[in-house]
Amino acid sequence: MKFLKYLGLGVVGIIVLILITASFLKKDYNVERDITISKPKDSVFAYIKYLKNQGNYSKWAKMDPNSKMEYKGTDGTVGFSYTWNSQIKDVGQGEQTIKKIVENESIDYELHFIKPFEGLADAYLTTETVGNNQTKVRWGFTGHMKYPFNIFLLVMNMDKLIGDDLSVGLTNLKGILDK
Fold it and tell me: Could you give phi then psi for residue 174, rounded to 5 degrees?
């Protein structure tokens, strides 16, 4: 009986320690990658502003070509959204919506993940002229993990988890646009 009491106190102690630790940890993350494409900025932007084109270069979209997609609104304009629903756990279910467009400069998106986990994140694509017919495309994600779930940021390397996929997508985009 004494053993169970000490075991219970130990478990409670570990939980309290985790909760205290989580209260001091960051809750926000930002992951970003970029690539230079040999095309003028307006040409690059004209392609990336359409969410449907992400199916051609995004690693996540390419993971399940059989994912069920539904579109709402006019692609390439604020308010356009699409939902996806995949049987593949790493793709899951969610919705992406264009929140803001600054023509030839940036596009901001909101991502609502439904499965395999519920969550919100913001994403963006920016374009910047870096030389004669050279455009730097930057793709980024920002997110927030609520307390006490932010404790997972200690063991989840968001930069590696998301960043590698962003790099794959940007490399795919370069392959398409540099042709």
Answer: -60, -45
Q: How far is CA 5 from CA 9, 15, 19, 130, 147, in A?
A: 6, 15, 21, 65, 28
pTM of the shown model? 0.82
Domains and CATH numbers, the chain: 27-177 (3.30.530.20)
Amino acid at 116: P
Q: What is the mean pLDDT of each run of 10 residues along the chain (179 residues)?
A: 78 72 71 96 97 94 91 97 92 96 97 89 96 95 76 72 93 95
84 Cβ neighbours under 8 A, 6+ residues apart: 61, 67, 68, 69, 91, 92, 93, 94, 95, 96
Q: How far apart are CA 118 and CA 113, in angstroms?
A: 5
Asked if 127 and 35 touch (Cβ cutoff 8 Å), the reply is no
